[in-house]
Amino acid sequence: MTRLVLKFGGTSMGGPERIAHSAAIAAHEASQGREVAVVVSAMAGETDRLLGFAESLGGGLGEVETDTALAAGEQASAALMALALKARGLKAQTVTGWSLPILVEGPPGSARITAIAGEPLDEMMRAGIIPVIAGYQGLNAKGRLATLGRGGTDLTAVAVAAAVGAECDIYTDVDGVFTTDPRIAPEAARVERISHDAMLELAAMGAKVLQTRSVEYAKAKAVTLRVKSSFLAPGQSAGTEVVEEAHLAERRVVSGVAYMRDQARLSLHGAPGPEAAEALFAAFAEADVAVDMIVQARARAGGAVIECSVSGRDLPRALALAQGLASRFEGLETRSETGLAKVSVVGTGLRGRADVARTLYGVLAREGVSVRMAATSEIKISALVDGDLLERAVRALHGAYGLADG
Amino acid sequence: MTRLVLKFGGTSMGGPERIAHSAAIAAHEASQGREVAVVVSAMAGETDRLLGFAESLGGGLGEVETDTALAAGEQASAALMALALKARGLKAQTVTGWSLPILVEGPPGSARITAIAGEPLDEMMRAGIIPVIAGYQGLNAKGRLATLGRGGTDLTAVAVAAAVGAECDIYTDVDGVFTTDPRIAPEAARVERISHDAMLELAAMGAKVLQTRSVEYAKAKAVTLRVKSSFLAPGQSAGTEVVEEAHLAERRVVSGVAYMRDQARLSLHGAPGPEAAEALFAAFAEADVAVDMIVQARARAGGAVIECSVSGRDLPRALALAQGLASRFEGLETRSETGLAKVSVVGTGLRGRADVARTLYGVLAREGVSVRMAATSEIKISALVDGDLLERAVRALHGAYGLADG
Predict the structure, then answer these.
(1) How far apart are CA B310 and CA B268, in angstroms?
(2) Spatial CB neighbours of B72, under 8 Å, sequence gap ≥ 6
(3) For FRET with B239, which of B42, B192, B209, B268 sits at 20 to 30 Å CA-CA?
(4) Domain end: B207, B224, B247, which one?
(5) CB atoms inside a 10 Å sphere around CB B58
(6) Beta strand extents in B44-187 (DSSP E only)
(7) What's any one GO cellular component for it (chains A, B) (predicted)?
(8) Looking at the structure, do residues B144 and B262 belong to the same domain, yes or no?
(9) Phi, psi of A349 (to 5 degrees)
């Protein structure tokens, strides 16, 4: 009998009606002859509510008592899901991080799962009882609850699937991953299958349908992962399947076009070498300024040019830190540009394919979109462009790579 | 070193500000050289919110998954209290029903505490760590959470106090028990000390400052119990101490005057004997009609008169049930009267003291308040009077027994 873990996030648990609908989806899967387990997040808004209380009492993320408060959110929602399944005539039982247990280690607020007691789940599932597991949490060696960080329920779901030999359906508010944002390009199509790496690139770039660590974990444990919508009728979400790259029939070089708004570019000119770069990124790390793209080139005169992109919100801090280096590095000049956006072409078929880059530059040039900075990874080419031209760039690239063909 | 358990109910935990204030009270007690533990309820409204969700998903009280959902409320509030204590520079740690554990048995929603692991609490308190214990819940033999029923956090507090050899302060929104309702008689005075039995009578009659089982438990385990207000500055609530009757300097015969509005009287005349009474109360029990006072007398003619009081809300159902008996008992006549109220004089000094009854009848007669029905227990005399005259009756009795002298 095939086994399936269904994960329902906060919006899928956003009140009794949403919970009842998610229960109907789980019931549908069980009716198809599958042994089912369910992993849930706290009800929408609940984690923020509890965290707000904790913060106003001097506690923040990364504090053990805060974790105990937050973990209550998933305990309650798991119990409510169990009730909803029982109301449909199914057998169900709440399982928490402490009751199973799900063992974790590491600091509160960002703990790692080290072991899941699979046998009790195994027994329940064989007895036809649906375990409803509180996500996002586990028990540490001191017997205290610790949470896994934002999106940690995805990780719980994948880890549970690995522990009981199940496939894993992550339910969210979109019917899978799309070739680009349908709000920008209405012709965007659902991606049927995608590799773990391409999924990671899309997730890291703002298409936050899956938590990064959960994708890595699924890849490492060879767990079949699907992204589906809990806002469709039971059985109606086709979703996107995340599969081993080797299993992909590589019909398509490019999987999708992603984007990120509110980007800024920071340039260091006339720097005396790697020392300035090291000092800059050390200062950024200390000040928690997140750096995205980094490019380095040698200018015709005056040494290396180092450029990086940061969020527009972080730019003032980043600029101040960069200018603070001027006293240490003679001749250092700082420049910046804001109001930019990043557009990225992602696909496992990109590796070494110069034609993909050629298309990107050609298409953007024809659209009058100048590329301010570009960087590539194994499966991604990203370009920083004028923010006002972002949507034109996304639509043009989406069309040029033939993504609208479905 | 003396030990003290402080219990904070829902209103004392009604949001971050209230929690911070309750933490200040606990900190004050710790600063007086006491080893302190704290037991908390869920934040005000939280249990009702979670129960509402559970009910709309087909779960009610008495269902194991509902209990798991409800118990999350105390887990969160305990963690928030621990944070608030830490913010004051104290050491504190959340303790839940499952983590200690607090062992319980019996049905979900009305479980009984069977054992509390006192040693971990003992160790924490000796190490200067304040255990903050989630009330209202425990772990049953199946490893599931079960709740103790409404007011169960009082019981947790008393049981914890018994387990660690502590006294127990129950914090609520009133500064102890009063000789009567200050809204009716502004001269009402705080009762400094009261016996467990008198406290039980007052609690059962609507002065719901303490849960009945917790008072019985405190009496059985000889735990010193105080009722205090968390709405005063730390150290400012004198409160009421519940003590062994033997320890009471019986300066006072009467402890207080309690009342209950919206009462009704139901009379059965011409009944052929105890069979009719039995049939009536069997019908009430089946229909969940709560009967309060029951009196029986022999009328000059026509056999016994049986009278009982029920809430005005229950009267229509009670009356229909009584009239339904007419077909089975020939000559049975039913009468009823609504718009009544009950006034009760409570005190351990009442036993066998006819003068207390004499005063009651005399005072009410002088005030023009006719007694419709009266009943006595060991430590209480209750009279059913016209609801419109209730306040006059309460004030007159309160004055007549010298309760305003403080």
Answers:
(1) 14
(2) A72, A73, A75, A76, A79, B50
(3) B42
(4) B247
(5) 18
(6) 91-95, 102-105, 112-116, 129-134, 137-139, 145-147, 167-172
(7) cytosol
(8) no
(9) -80, 0
Measure CA A104 to chain center.
Answer: 21
Tens of pLDDT along B11-30?
Answer: 999 999 999 999 999 999 99
CB atoms within 10 A of CB A210: 26
End-to-end CA distance of chain B: 32
A251 falls within a domain: no
Our CA-based measurement puts residue A70 at a distance from the nearest CA of chain B, in whole angstroms, of 7
Residues belonging to the binding site of B for substrate are 47, 74
Query: A240 with A350, same domain?
Result: no
Say whether both A205 and A270 belong to one domain.
no
Distance CA A26, CA A130 (A): 9
Q: Please give the tally of structural domains in chain B.
A: 2
Tell me: do B223 and B314 sit in the same domain.
Answer: no
Q: What is the largest CA-CA distance in chain A?
A: 76
Q: What token pair was written down for B339?
A: 């718009």
Residues of A in contact with B78 (CB under 8 A): 68
Locate the chain B residue with the closest alpha carbon to A52: B16
What is this model's ipTM?
0.81
Radius of gyration, alpha carbons of chain A: 23
Which range marks the domain in which residue B189 is found?
A: 3-247
Residues B159-190 pLDDT 10s:
999 999 999 999 998 888 888 888 899 998 88
**What is the chain A residue with the closest CA to B101?**
A143
Can you give the CATH number for the domain in which A298 is found? 3.30.2130.10
A237 touches chain B (CB under 8 A): no
Distance, CA of B24 to CA of B19 (rounded, Å): 9
**Rounded Cα distance, A292 and A299, in Å:** 22
Residue with tokens 């936050």: A208
Contacting residues of A for B72, CB less than 8 Å apart: 72-73, 75-76, 79
Tell me the C-alpha distance between A69 and B80, whole Å. Answer: 7
Of B261, B264, B265, B252, which Cα lies nearest the Cα of B398?
Answer: B252
Which DSSP string corresponds to B25-82?
Answer: HHHHHHHTT-EEEEEEPPPTTHHHHHHHHHHHTT--TT-HHHHHHHHHHHHHHHHHHH
Residue A366 covered by a domain: yes
Q: What is the pLDDT along chain A (406 residues), one digit of tens a residue?
A: 799 999 999 999 999 999 999 999 999 999 999 999 999 999 999 999 999 999 999 998 999 999 999 999 999 999 999 999 999 999 999 999 999 999 999 999 999 999 999 999 999 999 999 999 999 999 999 999 999 987 899 999 999 999 999 999 999 988 888 888 888 999 988 889 888 888 887 765 555 667 778 888 999 999 999 999 999 999 999 999 998 877 776 556 788 898 999 999 998 887 667 778 888 888 898 888 888 888 887 766 666 788 899 999 999 999 999 988 888 888 888 899 999 999 999 887 777 777 888 888 999 999 999 999 988 887 888 999 999 999 999 999 999 988 876 5
d(CA A142, CA A106): 11
Evaluate if residue B282 carries a pLDDT over 80. yes
